[in-house]
Structure formats: C-alpha cells, structure tokens
Amino acid sequence: MAAGSSNRMGCNKLSLPFEGSFLGSKALITALQSKLDTIFVITTPEDPMDWIAPSLFFNPVFKGKWTRIVSEKSFEGQAESLKSGLKEAENYLSEAAIVLLADQPFITTEMINNLILKYKECSLVETKLHYITSSNNGMFMPPLLLTSHIFSDIIKLNGDHGARYLIRDKDRYNGLSIDYTETNFFYDIDTPNDYDEITKNK
Which secondary structure element, helix H or strand E, spans residue 136, and what is its range? Predict the structure, then answer.
C-alpha cells in the first residue's frame, strides 16, 4: 500500500533517503525477499515511482515479482487502495493476500513468512478463516493476511475504513493473531519528527 497523500509529512515520504536507498523501497525489498508469490504495489495515478530503487526495475530476480496497480480513487481514502489490491488478487484467483504498508520500514521478512506459514497450517484443518494479523500488546497491526473469504466484504468498504474496521467484529469474522513484543517493528513514518527519529542515529 503506497497510495497515501503524505499530508502530514509535507512531501512524498516514500522518496526520503533511508539506509542507502529510499524509505518506500525498504518495505518493498522486504516483501520481495519473502515467500510471497506476487506483489502488487498500490499507488496513486500521479506517483512518479521515483522512490523505488532502480535495481527493483531491472534486477531479473525482482523484476517479474512485482506489479504496479494504480488506485484511481485513492484520494477517497485507504479503503480504495485496499480494494484496488484485493480486486487484483481476485483476478489472480488468490487464496489470500497480505497487506503491507510502504511507510513501515522495520517489518521483517520473518513476519511476512510467519503469516504465510500460519495460513498454510490452518488450511490443513477445516476452519473458515478470514484473517491472520500481526499484533503488538493486543493491538492488531499490519502486516495482515486476509483470506479470500473476506475479500468481497472489504471491497464494499468506503472512505478511510480499512480491514481492521471489519475484523473487529469477532462474531462475524474468524481470525488469529501473531503477537510481537518489539514495538519498533510496527513504527510507521507519518511526520517529519517520525523521520528524524529513525534517522538521527544513522
């Protein structure tokens, strides 16, 4: 998910320098190094894609593993970006999709792979699972795995309602969580202060 407006940052935060590349590239590289089959990069129509490291366009190992998806209505809220990705996942006949945020540079490949492994374990039993989420201190956080059983309900969402809006309904949706004690994993970069915090010791 890379279709945010960066209003609080005052510039395109994904293009900010970070660890020898760009902030937005960090999460994408992490996804590419995971066990995900295909990665959809959800952007606004006007995104110049200058935050993606050149090697991700030309390296044959990565080049065919990710695809840009333009969310034409991303300005209406995060639900539109999420819906754009899930509609594409439906076109691929995906059993499940993992939601990642481009402004979370500290998510690890292990966290992504843990969701995939847990999903595969659950698929061996006859349980209709809607989601598997990461969590910190009991709070649901991306990365989040959504199964195809919930795609259609999420695609009906509007505005700034994300998947978390639905999965709070525990009577309707069946899910699991993987808890992490390390809060820094989930740090997202929204403001200049956030960015200063993660780069001041670099």
Answer: strand 131-136
